[in-house]
């Protein structure tokens, strides 16, 4: 009774030692050498090889027992690669069939492969139906030359002994890292299969540490494996693609004044001083800015001097005209010159009075930095600032040309301010520009103006993102609209 216990204890000790060696491997090459060479201490075999899974690189023999590195150009390695590809394909088909039926290969299951005319294989399991388990999919199974196609079976005797064992490497997530093939003269026992199955789990766990991170495509492939689960996922996906969703458009937006009063330069000149500050509330009659009056003051002084001179000349001529007929004729000329001087003086005085610009009504002064205007030359009629009513605002959005989908007057808009992430304001589109124009950011967009419909309105000058709500459309169209539009532009259909 002690002999079996002593053998089992030794096997467990060797199993623990090989597991530790696999986890301590610093690279895939080192791990492959440990697998195909040091496993001999646990179970006897003549030859062993590790075949790497087809992903992410094409399937190939990565390690062969007795060799520091496998040479893919040798006849043995090429034959061995073909055999492993057949075994991997047959095991994948058997696993797929088991997953579709809700069963999987279990411990002790013998797969009897039978050749079919096209070179494929079909497996029949004798174990009762069990839930699909990734660990059970990695259970080894023996095979002989009769299990291979005739072309490969013909070379079996030249390379291998009678009995072989295929040990798949599958981690707990269902990813395949290929498989290990062992060959020897004696048949494989259930104890050998159980020990190698446990080692296969350790090897798969170690290989997972060297494998690249699983991409979302590979995760989707694992999720959509054949079976009831895949049918449910595909059905849910098909239903989700036809679910109606509102077609929305996002656009940068700003709260702008509605019907503001434009304060313009009253005449040509240079801005000397700004009395108001940006966003300052002003009352009617409050000084806003003043132009440089140096030139106008000189012109006014000259006009005043000319008027005084013309007035004195006219007075002297009028006195002499009482006694001299010739001076009576000059009096009319002096009168005309006096009137001309009076007109010029009056015009210059009115121009000088317009140098200081006052607010025609109450509001908020809207303009840029005062330093940008001080000393700037302006022309008559040039806009300097706006006078806006803070309670009378509207939403101005800029919809890019590619996103102009169902943006029509009457559509609803929701503003999400950048400064208030928890606030939102509803509005309704009033006008949409018929022509797209470049924005300051260089994007060609349509200008959209909307009126806020709620009682609470955002402050003037608030910027954010406007979501324009359109008609309802299937989710598939919502997701594929931009790709289809881009493809149509490239393909011209």
From TrEMBL:
Keywords assigned by UniProt, alphabetized: Coiled coil, Membrane, Transmembrane, Transmembrane helix
Predominant location: other
UniProt KW Coiled coil keyword: yes
Localization per record: Cell envelope
InterPro entries xrefs: UPF0194_transport
SUPFAM superfamilies assigned: HlyD-like secretion proteins (SSF111369)
Organism domain of life: Bacteria
Keyword Transmembrane: yes
Cellular component GO terms held in the UniProt record: cell envelope
Listed transmembrane segments: 233-253
Name this protein carries in UniProt: Secretion protein HylD
